[in-house]
Write a structure and sequence with these properties.
globular, 49% helix, 2-enoyl-CoA Hydratase, Chain A, domain 1, 256 residues, alpha/beta, four-stranded mixed β-sheet, Lyase 2-enoyl-coa Hydratase, Chain  A, domain 2, six-stranded mixed β-sheet
Length: 256
């Protein structure tokens, strides 16, 4: 059985399901399959992407049996970096649908997504410190950028698990739903996005992600370049004409 199952739906949504029972450990093998799947979605993008895991455990983190010493740590870290960077590079909105706990590498996978839709039972954590190590899959960087350095240090240095309501308040989670509705709500949101102006989604995501690495002035210059680029798309012409004729929110985009 594949460790990552890819489903392309008729509504334009691609669903990636982690499939490594019982706890969806992010082994090197699973990460390799995730990288391949994400690269395929980069080269042939759908309308939007949903990444989901198990009902009780989204992903419990790395496979600890693969740890041990500097050389193994480098191998594990490289597998995480390549897989999660591939997820982040998909030029569409990527939604993590988190029905259960997302710990360690599981939390880092959720952080590599654009949006996080979670169950009211979900919990998040970076418990690596309890093993005497630190996050190696982007946790120190993506978490701090998302929730701020103080909250990131609180989670990383204590290793504590953050419940869903607190995760929502701190901005780690974007939307919270009853447990049994999470996957359906995530796919519903993804399908709505898949009907939108896909080039604008891609360029807006690029502007935000790359702009965070630049000075403000360079980020503003990047935004201006991408604003000019997207203004030449068919969807831009459709959206502006629809606004003038029917008002906002009525455009039927073509996705190009």
């Amino acid at each position: 059985m594949p460790l990552v199952v890819t489903e392309r739906r008729e509504d334009g949504v691609a669903v990636l399901t982690l499939n490594n029972p019982k706890v969806n450990a992010l082994s090197i093998g699973l990460l390799a399959e995730l990288e391949v799947a994400a690269t395929g979605l980069h080269d042939d993008p759908p309308g939007a992407v949903v990444i989901t895991g198990g009902d009780r455990i989204f992903a419990a983190g790395a496979d600890i049996s693969e740890f041990g010493g500097i050389d193994r740590a480098k191998r594990v870290g490289r597998a995480f970096t390549q897989a999660l960077d591939a997820v982040a590079a998909i030029p569409r909105v990527v939604i993590a649908a988190i029905t259960g706990v997302a710990l360690g590498g599981g939390c880092e996978l959720a952080l590599a997504c654009d949006l996080r839709v979670a169950s009211d039972r979900a919990k998040f954590g970076q418990p690596e410190i309890l093993l005497g190590i630190i996050p190696g899959g982007g946790g120190t960087q993506r978490l701090a950028r998302l929730v701020g350095p103080g909250r990131a240090k609180d989670m990383i240095l204590t290793g504590r698990q953050v419940p869903a309501e607190e995760a929502l308040r701190m901005g780690l989670v974007d939307r919270l739903f009853p447990h049994e509705e999470v996957n359906a709500k995530a796919i519903e949101l993804a399908a709505e996005l898949a009907r939108g102006p896909l080039a604008a989604h891609s360029l807006a995501k690029l502007a935000i992600d790359e702009g965070l690495e630049l000075t403000l002035q360079k980020g503003l210059a990047l935004e201006q370049d991408l604003f000019a680029e997207v203004s030449g798309t068919e969807d831009a012409a459709i959206g502006q004409a629809s606004f003038l004729e029917h008002g906002p929110g009525k455009a039927q985009f073509l996705g190009r």
